[in-house]
Task: structure prediction
Amino acid sequence: MSLSSGSVRQVTVGRTVAWVLLFILLIVTLFPFYWMLRTAFSDNTQLPGHPNSLLPVETTLGAFKRVLGLSSIEEAQAQGGSGAAVNFWLYLRNSLVVATITTVCQVFFSAMAAYAFARLRWPGRDKVFAVFLAALMVPPIFTTLPNFVLIKNLGLLNSFAGIILPGAFMTPFAIFFLRQFFLGINRELEEAAMIDGAGHRRIFFGMIIPLSAAPIATLAILTYINSWNDYFWPLLVGQQENVRVLTVALGVFRSQTPQGGPDWAGLMAATLIAALPMIILFLAFAKRITNSIGFSGIK
Amino acid sequence: MTATTNAPPDTRRSHGDSGAPPGKRRSLGDLKVAMIFIAPATLGFVVFYIWPTLRGAYLSFTEYSLLSAPKFNGLANYDRMIHDSFFWNALGVTVEYVVINIGLQTVLAVGIAMLMYRLTKSITVRAIILAPYLVANVVVALVWYWMLDVQVGVVNTFLGWVGIDPIAFFGDSHWAIPTVAGINVWRHMGYTALLVFAGLQTIPSYVYEAAEVDGSTEWKTFWRITLPLLRPVLVMVLVVTMIGSFQIFDTVAVTTQGGPINATRVIYYYIYERAFTRFDFGYASAMALVLFAILAVVSLVQLRLLRARESDLA
Result:
């Protein structure tokens, strides 16, 4: 990889500069995460006096207690909170419910469809698949408006069903993604199983799914992250507290915080609670997630 | 997430031919089984994709406030749009956002990808730069909202150290869109860089070796060899990131909410306001359809560019 044919000295200078740039990039990437942490553990009333303290100001768990609904209104207000009732435990639970059900259903049903598109022969198959793929072109807001009307007419506003249903059956991307992997599975294995008398159901559950465990897991992780981070749809159909997910709750919390002196510590504690599960998921599967983007290339 | 997250390895395999020679099976093939397997997905597809697409198109020709049935009103919504200065403002603001966001992000992503390509293949480095992309838009927006606060934000403290007066990043109408664009550059540049990085690895090393033999400098090699060979990947990345960029909503919704004075009322946010605060569903649908058309044209133009360049390495 030694591209440069210049003098050794030049190479060294160039590489040093490049390493410095990369280092700055990593700092710029990580600093906001650190600042979120630092602020969440600070005392909100003391924050304005120490805007550049690298460590938490008057370290306290007050902000977390506040957003988890564990401190009294007086306590919360004394520490710079709005005093409005917030319960991020509840929102955390709601996010878990929504993301988990969405992921399980979407990946499973998409895998079934992908099997039909990849391994079965039937008239019109490729045309139907093309129609499914074409839906990738439609911007979400266009279908969101009528979907909202539908969910409303079904009486499912402010219910988990209303939040989950549109994403529970498939996404064109999920089917496309899994189909690619199913296509690559060796045909002979399948034929051998058929000779042994296995039906399509057994081949799907006993062979295709186990053989595709890795891509299915990758897809599930990506789906989970997407579902967890989604804001627009739950904002429309899930405003009420009992089904409010973390992203929506953060928006509400931000709009409720006192205008004059916002509860920054509380806000950062809340964002940390919303981000932490994804950060943990990422730390656990960093390699898998990164490689799914890094090495596959786009065609 | 987008369709480019992962296009798995074997796209070139002759697709879908399930092995058995044609004619050995009945012409209907596995139709019965296939119908069972695609039933749930098809149900979801028809109810939540096809039907709303058709219905959305119809609603765009109606007056509809959710309270009574939609009333057909021909092209009235479109006529109104032409004369709606808020609509044109929203389009203008969105385009400004897209240009800043995509311009900055693409240049940075190529730079980052080159840095990684030349310096390190470390998975840790790649994971770190990807991290912001995995955190919700809303979270990212709020963290930066705090860091960029005009009074106590840490960024303004830093600026103070180098003698720059505090900037009202969200409160100043000139700064608001570049600020929102910058925040999303921070969130997306690592992801985009990884896509470019993947593209870099498809360039065979003999091309570089030949350049070295010819005494090309690194700078020249980048402009004359790397970038041209990267073009197909870049165009594809541009198509996908630009479509996403036009749909900016979350960041605006939790920070500026369209302000100050319409400066960040992007098209997605304007449609949302029309539909869900004024219950003007017909008009909102018409604007959504126009946005759909704009995105289709943008991607078609870009894909055509892609095709024109495809043979660079051939």
In short: Chain A has two domains: 2-78, 88-255. The CA atoms of residues 116 and 187 of chain A lie 14 Å apart.
